[in-house]
Amino acid sequence: MLVIVYMIQKLALGLDATVSNVALSFIYGGDIIDNGWFLLVIILLYEIFYLSAKYARQRVCESVLLLTVLYMAVALVAGMSLWWYVTCTAFPIGIYFSKYKTQVDSFISSKYEYVSSILALVFVLTLYVGYSINANGTILYNIVEHKFLCNLILTPIHCLFFLCMIIVLMMKKSPESRTLQWFSTIYLEIYVLQGLVFNSFNNPMWNMESRYLFAFLSFILTILLARLCHPTFVTIMSNVKAK
């Protein structure tokens, strides 16, 4: 589904969608699927979990963590782009959270205000530091020499605290919430169509200088487009399941 959506967009823009171009997109070497690295990495992480659950049944969490760190180390040594591995820490975090969910829920519920405040504070602080390190003209940009190393350390921290913030915020939201139920019906559409919307807005034709306006319009249009395409997605997925 994702490949089809991106291919239609690229064809509409006049891009040559050859077989090799599509294949290379899955390893971030083509230009049909934007961020094609994600497809390979998510499959790899699923394989890590499968192997851990099959061969390390008593140490699944530890095995997932070890193999994920091993993959990150190999990717780093191989000189792969930072995004190939730096956010992978979210996967073992999710596995550990799933294992200790009852204890974590109990702890957070008893100290919700403190936990949520600390998470938000650390996330904003590390995000600001990360931005300052990479933004030309800031004090940290001029002071910090090893920017790659700092990004390598800070980005997993962003990922960790952002993930924890989402978990904490969702704890206060009932699963029966109409908003959550509504979004749960179009999550696949949002996932598939968000890149299409981003690319549509992020081009010289719109000349959208404000990144805040870009983010806002992209969010709104993604939701609207996802809802509009929902019946089509339902039909396609129903036919796939039937076969």
Rg: 20 Å
- Would you report the number of β strands? 0
Shape: globular
**How many discrete domains?**
4
Number of helices: 12
Helical content stands at over 70%
Strand count, sense and closure of the main sheet?
none
Regions with pLDDT < 50 over 5+ consecutive residues?
A: none
Strand residue content: under 5%
Indicate the mean pLDDT: 77
Element string (H = helix, E = strand): HHHHHHHHHHHH
Explained architecture:
The chain is mainly alpha-helical and 243 residues long. It has four domains: 34 residues, no CATH class; 46 residues, no CATH class; 73 residues; 68 residues, no CATH class. 75% of the residues lie in helices and 0% in strands. The protein is built from twelve helices and no strands. The chain is globular and about 50 Å long. The two termini are 16 Å apart. The mean pLDDT is 77.
Summarize the structure.
Helices cover 75% and strands 0% of the residues. The protein has 243 residues and is an all-alpha fold.
Keywords for this entry:
4 domains; single chain; mainly alpha
Tell me the layout of helices and strands.
Elements: H1 2-12, H2 19-25, H3 37-55, H4 60-77, H5 90-99, H6 101-110, H7 112-134, H8 139-143, H9 147-171, H10 178-184, H11 187-201, H12 211-242
